[in-house]
Amino acid sequence: MSFKRRIMLALILCLNIILIGTLGYMLIEDYSLFEGLYMSVITITTVGFGEVKPLSETGRGFTAFYILIGFGCLAFAGHAIVESIFEKVSSGKSEIRKMKKQISSLKPHYIICGYGRVGQAAAEHFKKTDTEFVIIEANPGQCQVIQENGYLFIEGDATRGNVNLEAGIKCACGLLALLNSDPDNLFAVLTARELNPTLHIIARAEESSSEQKVIRAGADSVISPFATAGMQIAGDILAATGTSDQISVCSIQPTAVPQWITVMEGSSMMGESINAVAGQMGREVIGLRRNGNDLILPDPETQLETADMILVFDINRNGEKQFSKQAPQPKKLVIVDDNPVILRLYSRLFQKAGFDPVTAVNGREGLDAIIKEKPAAAVIDFMLPVISGIEVCRQVRAQEGLQGIKLILFTGDNRPETRSRAVDAGADAVVVKGPEASEVIETVIRILKEEVS
């Protein structure tokens, strides 16, 4: 029962009880309307005032019965009112807890960042197709609209990692960055990609100059609502007039990899402007991290300081210029696994760790890639099509000039005999598959550091 209905019923009950008492005294004791009302109020409230007129035996019996009934009705009405007020106050928190519990149980689902016109259309489509999704929205007014529509949502900033975690980004399979600002969408993509490297991300961009930046930040594709609508309309008119029967809507595909570079003490970047550094490196700087604060699209004239971190995107891999001290050529790394999700995950994680990964989907391709690329290390799955990971290790060790390559075997089999076979075949380390993807990266970095020391 709603809050308003409970209060209304309680008030109606009280008025009816008073009316019954008033009529009873008027009929039994011949009281006037005011005297009957007065006696009814002081009786059911048990204030202890004297009688207006002496009561007859019948009047005393009615009064005793009226006290019991009236007091019980007042207690019930009071309880209903207090309970309704308490529920009104606590219902907001209760609903939020219930919603968070529902969100935590979703797997897999989609996340919509922003509930503007585009976000509303996406939510409606998801609802029609019975697709599970969560909306992240910072505007309280929009959150009220979302709640009225019965959608799951998180009130907060979609560019914040903790908000994305509340929305279940670790278990999500896709994210739509549909915020009203291109820099906000770019930062939302960066945050989402860092938290879930395998997430499929589609972002919105208003300006054509922002599209490549958002792609490089980690989006799988970028859609411009106005450009898409224009192409759709043009395609429709061509189809309607018989000029064309095919409508194509294009999205931009990834062409570069983001990388954080730290300005170390004594670096030639110290004191230089962001614009000058970008020109010398042949890279585009789209982010600055200083004292733990992130700034997207910083002022090009900002001078870099020690411990600053800049987020750069490759513009031209073949002709890029780099600072030899601060941005050395990334070490080659071959990843061999027949699971495309694993390949995507570890490719992004190793890129973030400063490596240049090359992937292969079976043992033969992996062996050929290792022979061709001569990487610093190779991460090889134990169970592979064509030839196994053990056989890849064995053949690599049999090749001249490949002895220095570090081989890490990745397996779900934690038996000692499996580890022994891998070491005998030439593996430098064996990592058992687990929930923490960072273990493989840490193992590779540790082994390469041991080689240097």
Give a short synopsis of this structure:
The chain is an alpha/beta fold and 453 residues long. The protein has 15 helices and 15 strands.
Structure explained in plain terms:
- By secondary structure, the chain is of the alpha/beta class.
- The protein folds into 4 domains: 3-100, Helix Hairpins (Orthogonal Bundle), CATH 1.10.287; 106-240, NAD(P)-binding Rossmann-like Domain (Rossmann fold, 3-Layer(aba) Sandwich); 258-314, Regulator of K+ conductance, C-terminal domain (Alpha-Beta Plaits, 2-Layer Sandwich); 331-452, Response regulator (Rossmann fold, 3-Layer(aba) Sandwich), CATH 3.40.50.
- It is 48% helix and 16% strand.
- It is built from 15 helices and 15 strands.
- The protein has helices at residues 3-29, 33-44, 57-104, 117-128, 140-148, 161-166, 182-195, 208-216, 225-240, 274-281, 340-352, 363-373, 389-398, 416-424, 438-452; strands at residues 110-113, 133-137, 153-155, 174-177, 200-204, 221-223, 258-262, 283-290, 293-296, 309-314, 331-336, 355-360, 377-381, 406-411, 429-432.
- Helix 1 packs across helix 2 (33-44), helix 1 runs antiparallel to helix 3 and helix 7 packs parallel to helix 8.
- The radius of gyration is 35 Å and the shape is elongated.
